[in-house]
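Re: that chain you flagged

S.,

Sorry for the slow reply, it's been a week of failed gels. I finally had a moment to sit down with the sequence you sent. For the record, here it is as I used it:
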Amino acid sequence: MSLTWSAHISWLFGELPYLERVGAARRAGFHRIETAWPPDDDERDGLARALATEGMEVVLLNCDAGDADAGERGFLNDPARREEAERAFLAAAELAQRIGAPNLNLLVGRELAGTSPAAQRRAVAEALSSFAPEAAARGLRILVEPINSIENPGYLAPTPRHAIELIEQCGSDALGVLLDVYHVARSGEDPMSAIERCAALIGHVQLSDCPGRGRPGSGELDVPRILESLGASGYRGSVGLEYAPRGTTESSLELLREERYPVLL
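Prediction finished late last night. Pasting the structure tokens below so you have them in one place:
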């Protein structure tokens, strides 16, 4: 099975300043990272330098998803913020090209008061349809991530089925699914069934255990079977470790290595 781990540096190595996490991931044995949108200009400028210095690849970059602390999970669904969404997408696309990230995670947003759900879904589909040709021209793929509505009430793509429906409305090969196994499980769905349903559209995978969102092996998920299902589905990309370490990141990785999962670290 040719799967590899990717370190999500917005979650892992949080005990270090952002740019130092690239080197920490390299020293821990990773060759690939992924990241949320670096909000600071200096961090965006420094990221490319840190990657080149450490010889690391980037497999995924999140677009700016708004004020996460205030509960925002994207704003594609807000017709009044369409220009802002386009600026955020283009900024992320430019950074992705600069750092060599092939995939952009574009969160679609949570339901807004005062605007009908149908109008919001239409705004999401229109934005994705508009952005997809630009992504394709740049050699990028936009990924739609299902995010569970238990922890994120009103999110407009809470399950893989919702993400697939949005993608099919747009009809572009520049769109795919970011399959976060934690969100699938937290929604009460079977991860293996989700893998089978999404197989042709999976652009990237993220993994943490459920419940608790800790490292793989800390919860109730059948991680070996999930990884085997991914391999059997034809997925050959990275599996992003997007979990909340208990203690230091390195101590959690030592426990992860003991699990001897069929991925490289």
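What I noticed first: The longest helix spans residues 117-137.

Talk soon,
D.
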